[in-house]
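Subject: Protein record for review, amino acid sequence with backbone structure tokens
How to read it: Take the token row as a discrete description of the fold.
Enclosed: The protein record, placed directly beneath this head.
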Amino acid sequence: MARAALRWSVDELARRSGVSEKTIRRIEQVYGVPNVTLDTMHKLQFCFEQQGMTMIPEDGGAEGPGVRYGRYPGRVLRASPDLDGDSDGERNGTPE
């Protein structure tokens, strides 16, 4: 998920992380915990975290594990426009 969010190819991730393309492809084909060294996983995690990714661990909750794309170079956060046109904080006549 992290590689897709960054729009990186396998080649790009391999170059940036120091993990071989073959290993990355093998990891991506596995559902669950891949059979790789902890060092390999740390290299990948560090590479993604340097780009602003946050790894979300499996905690047994309904949302499960994943990644959050919190910050990255060039990202500008903007307030979302009021979708219904009201500027006073009310939607459909109900205060928020």
Summary: The first strand starts at residue 53 and ends at 56. Confidence is low (pLDDT under 50) at residues 89-94. The chain is about 35% helix and 10% strand. Residues 53 and 69 are 5 Å apart (CA to CA).
